[in-house]
Amino acid sequence: MVSIEEVEKYLGSKITDPYGRVVGVLSSIYSDVDGNVSGVEVVSEDYSIKYVGSERLVISHDGLIILPEWKVEALKVEAQLDRARKRARAIEDLYLNKEISSQAYEEMKKQIEATLSRLKEKAKQVRSVLRKRLGEVEDEILHVDKAMNHLKLVYTSGEISEQRFKQSIDMLRSSKNKFIEEKKDLEKHIELIEKLETEISAPVKQPQITTISPQPVQQPQTAQSQTQQSPINVIITA
């Protein structure tokens, strides 16, 4: 949650995403009576106006950042999966340490399992969104590569000046780098969600109790038993 005081200074300024791409110009702010921003309006380069909710707004050292929708959903489901995983393990620990009854354990376990089931379905949907965006980003990278290759061709053939070539190639390289950053970010979140899903699905290892069998007690030998066990020396005389 950001305040109107934090956002107000960016009115009329260009706003970027986490990868440095310009999203548009901040044109209006919506806030409640407590001064908390509920959303903003952003004017894009084609002069269309788009509403952006406060959950996508982040104040960083680079200024006001607008997160992609996929990133907001990824962060949300990651936090939920992590919290549910910790609760599931906490329930097992409490029961194993006999700090809760078996009845309470079964009730709590049933609730957390229902929650985990819903979260797994949500995580599946989010991963699908992320993979779709990943495919789009990879297509954009290929498109930029194609444009760069053609630009090099017309420059090498002497059809455009060096100055124009450098300006254009730098812009294309910058565009490609920003898409590569987003691609890495997408892959990181997909991997993290899959890891959390695996961890909450893994069975909790029950502590193994090692039973030590008592050693038989050695009974002290009596003089008679010692005599019976000792060899008898037989002397034979000629």
Please estimate the helix content: 55-70%
Low-confidence stretches: 206-212, 234-238
Number of domains: 2
Kindly state the mean pLDDT as a whole number?
88
Strand pairing plus helix content: what structural class? alpha+beta
Placed side by side, the strands forming the largest sheet appear as 1-2-3-4
Helical stretch tally:
5
- Helix-strand pattern: HEEEEEEHHHH
Indicate the radius of gyration in whole angstroms: 35 Å
End-to-end gap: 115 Å
- Total beta strand runs: 6
The biggest beta sheet is recorded as: 4 strands, antiparallel
Give the DSSP E fraction (strand runs of 2 or more residues).
5-15%
Which key phrases capture this entry?
238 residues, SH3 type barrels, two-stranded antiparallel sheet, disordered C terminus, 2 domains, 5 helices, alpha+beta
Any overview of this molecule?
There is one protein chain. Strands 1-2-3-4 form a four-stranded antiparallel sheet. Strands 5-6 form a two-stranded antiparallel sheet. It has two domains: 4-67, PRC-barrel domain (SH3 type barrels), CATH 2.30.30.240; 70-197. With 238 residues, the chain is α+β, with helices and mostly antiparallel strands. Helix content is 57%, strand content 14%. It contains five helices and six strands, in the order αββββββαααα. The termini are far apart. It has helices spanning 4-8, 69-96, 102-156, 162-201, 223-229; strands at residues 14-16, 22-31, 37-43, 49-53, 57-60, 63-66.
